[in-house]
Amino acid sequence: MKIAVIQPKMIGDVLITSVIFEELKLKFPTAELHFIVNKNTTPVLENNPFIDKIITLDPSTERGFFGFIKQLNRIRVENYDIIIDSYSKLKTALFCKFSLANKTISFNKSYSKFFYNDTIIRTKHSISTATKAVEHRLQLLKPLEIDFQVIKPKLYLENYEIEEAIRILTQNNIDLNKPIIMISAIGSSESKTYPLHHMANVIDQIAENKSVQILFNYIPNQKNTAFELYNLCQLDTQEQIFFDVYAKSLREFMGLTSQCAALIGNEGGAINMAKALNIPTFTIFSPFILKNDWNMFENEKTNISVHISDYFPNLSLKKSKNDTEIYELLKPELFNNLLLLFLKNNSIR
Q1: CA 166 to CA 48: how far, in whole Å?
Q2: Dist CA 203 CA 183 (whole Å)
Q3: Is residue 321 over pLDDT 50?
Q4: 343/260 Cα distance (integer angstroms)
């Protein structure tokens, strides 16, 4: 039997969706399990013992009708028995419809029954600490008679990757015996980025512990913005920031994060990867992300998050030209005590 799961989206979505495979392998131990994802997300799947093969799509080169046909043929040639579409968009629905798979499963939408054999209605409320982000994906297994149970996403690092991270840190005069904090400095978009002057205040608060060593997580095209954030921090704080020590790849980021006492900052893939590595996280949510859908495995100690609705429950959060103004309302002083508690609980203060 061959089973495929489709999730051609962002890194965090792919990582969260990977929990499906642990359940599939338990139910169908001899089945061949494939994951169909975008090419740039594969690093979070490396060494996953529950995934037998990764089928990659490349939206940067496979565009338009002919790109779609090329991708469809890559899927059809595998002759899947079952396809689970976790993305549930028209494009992936067409993949399923023309895949020749015997059984196709996805979420219920107005057009779903035309494309899939089985459709699942998403639950409106969370039923576990995994939240709807994980729960909805595991719901897709119901037609296969697999009952829901809480499973955490996991990342699988090789020993050499951890050793390389340690080498990078020590080579840059970072003391492994003192707490290292990874800052998720820049979000994936402006609306997902905590205002820089507020984030600088958060970092200053963390740096009051003079033994703390701070790393910034950013990608090359965010370097100027990250440097702007650095310059907004107090001079004493800047002395504790190792600005030029940053991950050159996703796997390197995972290795560096595995050596950190915590990851603090903008909600997104970095937070999800830290949780998958069992690293404590303090998450600052964008006003336009539903916190209760994505604050996975929150426990008031190792995983804590804040959202503007925690402090302004009646505030309208519809996106508009005033996006930045809404985010400005989430001032650091509103959650300073919670941040201090997080640092204390995780022996960082």
Answers
A1: 22
A2: 8
A3: no
A4: 13
Half-sphere exposure of 341 (CA within 13 A, CB side): 11
pLDDT of residue 323: 63
Q: Which residues contact 344 (CB under 8 A, 6 or more apart)?
A: none
Scanning the chain, the segments in alpha helix (DSSP H) are 11-17, 19-27, 64-76, 90-97, 112-115, 131-139, 159-171, 196-206, 223-232, 235-238, 250-257, 269-276, 291-294, 323-328, 332-345
Residues 234-247: what's their mean pLDDT? 95
Report the SS3 class of residue 282.
strand
Instruction: Give CA angle at 131 (324, 185), nearest 5°.
Output: 35
* Alpha carbons 10 and 272: distance in angstroms, whole number: 11
Task: Give me the residue label for tokens 């459709």.
Answer: 119
Cβ contacts of 55 within 8 Å, gap of 6 or more: 4, 34, 35, 36, 37, 74, 75, 78
Measured distance CA(179)–CA(224) in Å, rounded: 26
- Whether residue 37 contacts residue 75, with contact meaning beta carbons closer than 8 Å, is answered with no
pLDDT at 194 exceeding the cut of 60: yes
> Cβ-count burial of 338 within 10 angstroms (0-12 exposed, 13-18 middle, 19+ buried)?
middle
Choose among 163, 180, 159, 176: nearest CA to 257.
180
pTM above 0.85, yes or no: yes
Task: Tell me the average pLDDT across 8-37.
Answer: 96
| pLDDT above 50 for 234 | yes
Query: Which distant-in-sequence residues (6+ apart) come within 8 Å of 183 by Cβ?
Result: 199, 203, 214, 215, 216, 217, 263, 264, 265
Run of H or E including 181: strand 180-184
> Mean pLDDT across the chain, nearest whole number?
93
> Cα torsion for 26, 30, 35, 41, to the nearest 10°?
70
DSSP conformational letter for 192: G
